[in-house]
Amino acid sequence: MWLSKHYPKASFVRYADDVVVHCTSKAEAERVLETIKERLAEVKLKIKEEKIRIAYCSDYRRKGSHEVVKFEFLGFSYQPGARKSIKDGKQYKAFAAEISQSNQKRIREVIREMRLWSNTVVEVSSIAKLPNAKLRGWIAYYGKYSIRSLRNTLLMIDRRLIKWLRKKHKIGYRKSVAKLNLIKQANPELFYHWKMGYC
């Protein structure tokens, strides 16, 4: 590819029209960006300026500073954050992927709009069918790199279930939570996020 030929040390990831280029310095990133713009101009194409980011991938090894330290790509937000070491359990600073805020919001909206929450006549096994189809897709895509933030987002399913149990059985919040825990114990694979440990 053209980019590999001109910048052999700069690795890149491309999906459709979106590209992330990894450079060794800000100066190199600026040179690469200008070269890409020139190359696109040759074939009468332009980069969308609002999508351009030169971000510094800050972690425990890269301790410099930059005004932009995160970017979004394919539904993920790449940014510095605390992680726990598998070896000794200590926390360290990593540059890693999280499900983006906009996609967390979109998932919550999809969950909220599921009409099943107003149907208190059916049993919980019927309630599980519609969310499970969505849950499989979300967990398959986001679950590999974004377990923590995805878990926090999917907890909305459990919160909706608690509300549903309150309406169905006309009981208070604490009893609804206790009832949901009993359902989880009796049917740990009923909802796909329970089965996969997102609860």
Please describe what this structure looks like.
The chain has helices spanning 2-6, 26-42, 101-113, 124-127, 129-142, 147-169, 173-186, 192-195, and strands at 11-15, 18-22, 71-73, 76-84, 91-99. The chain has 199 residues and is an alpha+beta fold. A hairpin with a 2-residue loop joins strand 3 and strand 4 (76-84). Helix 5 runs antiparallel to helix 6 (147-169). The model has no long low-confidence stretch (mean pLDDT 88). The strands form two sheets. Strands 3-4-5 form a three-stranded antiparallel sheet. The chain has a two-stranded antiparallel sheet with strand order 1-2. It has three domains: 1-54, no CATH class; 59-98, no CATH class; 101-196, no CATH class. The two termini are 44 Å apart. The chain has eight helices and five strands.
Structural topology:
Layout: H1 2-6, E1 11-15, E2 18-22, H2 26-42, E3 71-73, E4 76-84, E5 91-99, H3 101-113, H4 124-127, H5 129-142, H6 147-169, H7 173-186, H8 192-195
Antiparallel strand pairs: 1-2, 3-4, 4-5
Q: Which descriptors would you attach to this protein?
A:
single chain, 199 residues, alpha+beta, three-stranded antiparallel sheet, two-stranded antiparallel sheet
